[in-house]
Amino acid sequence: MDGRQVLSIVGTLALMIAVFVGAYYFSKYFGQHYRTRYGATKNLSILESQAVGKDGALLIVEAAGRAFLVGATPREFTLLSELDPETLTPPDSGESPKTDFSAAFKTALRGFGKKQDEGEHTP
Does one domain contain both 8 and 48? Predict the structure, then answer.
C-alpha cells in the first residue's frame, strides 16, 4: 500500500465516523424537540390496554380526570362506558422489571442454538 491508499482509507473512515456522530446528535436533538410537541400530553393517557381478537383492543383511557372503557379497531373507536377512576386498581408503585437487551438477546440465541442442535441429531 502506498501513502495515497492509506490516506484514502483513513479519510473514508473519518468521514463515516463523522456521519454516524452527526446522525446521533441530529436524532437526539430532534427527538427531544418533537417528543414534547407530539408525544406528551397532560390530560390524556392510556392506563391499560388488552388485545381482543386479531385487530381489536380494549383500552382504559383517562381524559381530564375521567376514565373511559374504549373499544378500538383499525377502523374506529367506540366508547363502551365511563368508569369511576377511584374504583380502578392503581398501577404498581414499583417499576416494572426491565429486561436488559443483552441478556434477552443471549437467551434468545441460546434457544435458537438448542433448536438448531435438536434438528442436527437426526439419524
Answer: no
